[in-house]
């Protein structure tokens, strides 16, 4: 990064012979674009990106008729986009993204017929996409994402014969997807993002004509009906995102032809099983997310896909025990989500053999019995979520996971809403220096909290509520300097609140209610900032924010 600082001086516009002005990447450059910028009539390239420029774009910029490239992205520019930018007929690149522009995209932009790259993403632009945007015949890359655009996608986009990248995601666009209307249109389109809009209707079968497509995201819209089998013609496709719609019916058999597919997400739809056997041909598939559909089972071929390492079948109505076909897969499983199903029985001992597992979510099932000792064999597990089951016994084996990793491998542990009776005392056995989130609430744990909890140096959220912990609050908790959430309510803690708790400067959420605490609440922030409800139900407590202590 260049470290020149200062203001953008208007005197630079006296250099009327300038053809290239490059002040890009000067993070210390602030001020406004001079209104006299229009004097630089010989300017071909203007680079003002990555600065701290603010204010509006001067109207006079429309006089720079020789301008070929205008890069003003990553500033703090605001106001409307001047319509006379549409006079810059020689422009081939217009990059205004990552600013604070408001108002609509000027219709005059459709006059920029030499434009190859238009990027307005990450602003606050409103209104419709210009109806004649299809006049930009040379346009290769169009990015209007992360704005507030509404209305329908204009049908004229079918005329963008050179387009290879089109990102219209994260707006308020509605109506149906209007392209392609015929075979041969948009022949070079490789990357299409329409996610996070309000697009409706069916996925157009004609989408199967766009044979150059490599990545497509239509997720989080209002698309409905069956998935067209014509999508199986997209032989170059590597990533397909269709989650968060209202799609129904079965996955087409033609999906088995998508031989380059690496990722398929279809979660949160109304897709029915069974999955087509033809999908067993997807030799390159690495990520498969079919969560929250009505599949009822996982076909055996899923465990035989040679590249599959991330498997998500949450909320699919799967019954019975955890399928043992997952015991040995051609590619080691890295992420497994079987949460929110109807799984019964215990966590099988063979799970410990999944030594490359990074994330395991078995929450919201009916799993019972205790955690097998073999889970200590997980060498790389970062995320463990077992909440809302009927698991009993000790949680000690969890604290032995990933001990070969410097600082331990775990970052997120949720064992809440089970029937664990012991194990927290063994927290000192493990290496848990990287744990950020630890939730052991709603269990049957009792006894004293171990002082070794101070080893959880990275901890930001600790929830031990609704257990039977007793004795005094350990001062060691005050050494968890990153702690933002501390929930200890509904236990049997006794004695005073340690004065050291005033050291928890990052604490935003505290609940010590319904214990047996006594004495004066230590005076000062952050404890004094919390409402009374965080301390109520401790009959012996007094002091701010509760009633004053009696002298």
UniProtKB/TrEMBL annotation:
InterPro entries: Leu-rich_rpt, Leu-rich_rpt_typical-subtyp, LRR_dom_sf. Gene3D superfamilies: Ribonuclease Inhibitor. It is a single-pass type I membrane protein. One of its GO terms (cellular component) is membrane. Its main location: membrane. Keywords: Cell membrane, Glycoprotein, Leucine-rich repeat, Membrane, Receptor, Repeat, Signal, Transmembrane, Transmembrane helix. PROSITE patterns: LRR. It is found in: Cell membrane. Pfam families: LRR_1, LRR_8. The keyword GTP-binding does not apply. SUPFAM superfamilies: L domain-like (SSF52058), RNI-like (SSF52047). The keyword ATP-binding does not apply. Belongs to the RLP family. This is Probable leucine-rich repeat receptor-like protein kinase At1g35710 isoform X2. It comes from Gossypium hirsutum (Upland cotton). The lineage of its organism: Eukaryota, Viridiplantae, Streptophyta, Embryophyta, Tracheophyta.
């Amino acid at each position: 990064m260049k470290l020149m600082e200062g203001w953008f001086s208007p005197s630079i516009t006296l250099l009327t012979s300038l053809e290239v002005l490059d002040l890009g990447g000067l993070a210390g450059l602030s001020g406004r674009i001079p209104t006299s910028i229009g004097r630089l009539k010989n300017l071909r390239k203007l680079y003002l990106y990555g600065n701290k420029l603010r204010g509006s774009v001067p109207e006079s910029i429309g006089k720079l008729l020789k301008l070929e490239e205008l890069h003003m992205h990553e500033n703090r520019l605001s106001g409307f986009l001047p319509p006379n930018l549409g006079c810059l007929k020689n422009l081939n690149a217009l990059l205004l993204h990552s600013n604070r522009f408001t108002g609509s995209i000027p219709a005059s932009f459709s006059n920029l017929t030499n434009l190859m790259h238009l990027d307005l993403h990450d602003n606050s632009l409103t209104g419709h996409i210009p109806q004649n945007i299809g006049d930009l015949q040379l346009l290769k890359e169009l990015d209007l994402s992360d704005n507030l655009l509404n209305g329908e996608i204009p049908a004229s986009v079918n005329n963008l014969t050179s387009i290879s990248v089109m990102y219209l995601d994260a707006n308020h666009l509605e109506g149906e997807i209007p392209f392609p209307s015929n075979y041969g249109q948009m022949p070079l389109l490789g990357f299409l993002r329409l996610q996070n809009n309000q697009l409706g209707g069916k996925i157009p079968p004609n989408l199967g004509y766009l044979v150059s497509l490599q990545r497509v995201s239509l997720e989080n819209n209002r698309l409905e009906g069956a998935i067209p089998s014509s999508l199986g013609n997209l032989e170059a496709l590597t990533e397909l995102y269709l989650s968060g719609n209202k799609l129904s019916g079965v996955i087409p058999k033609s999906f088995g032809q998508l031989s380059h597919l690496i990722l398929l997400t279809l979660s949160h739809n109304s897709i029915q099983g069974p999955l087509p056997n033809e999908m067993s041909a997807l030799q390159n598939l690495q990520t498969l997310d079919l969560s929250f559909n009505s599949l009822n089972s996982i076909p055996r071929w899923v465990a035989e896909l040679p590249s599959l390492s991330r498997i998500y079948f949450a909320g699919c109505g799967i019954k019975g025990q955890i399928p043992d076909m997952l015991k040995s897969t051609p590619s080691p499983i890295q992420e497994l989500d079987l949460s929110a199903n109807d799984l019964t029985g215990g966590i099988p001992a063979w799970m410990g053999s999944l030594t490359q597992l990074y994330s395991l979510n078995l929450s919201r099932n009916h799993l019972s019995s205790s955690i097998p000792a073999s889970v200590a064999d997980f060498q790389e597990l970062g995320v463990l979520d077992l909440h809302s089951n009927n698991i009993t016994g000790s949680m000690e084996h969890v604290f032995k996971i990933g001990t070969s990793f410097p600082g331990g491998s775990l970052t997120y542990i949720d064992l809440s809403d089970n029937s664990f009776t012991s194990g927290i005392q063994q927290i000192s056995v493990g290496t848990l220096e990287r744990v950020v989130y630890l939730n052991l609430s709603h269990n049957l744990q009792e006894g004293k909290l171990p002082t070794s909890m101070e080893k959880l140096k990275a901890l930001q959220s600790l929830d031990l509520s609704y257990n039977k912990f007793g004795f005094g609050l350990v001062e060691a908790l005050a050494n968890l300097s990153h702690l933002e959430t501390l929930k200890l309510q509904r236990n049997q803690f006794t004695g005073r609140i340690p004065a050291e708790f005033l050291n928890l400067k990052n604490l935003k959420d505290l609940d010590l209610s319904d214990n047996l605490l006594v004495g004066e609440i230590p005076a000062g922030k952050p404890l004094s900032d919390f409402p009374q409800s965080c301390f109520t139900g401790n009959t012996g407590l007094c002091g701010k924010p509760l009633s004053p202590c009696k002298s």
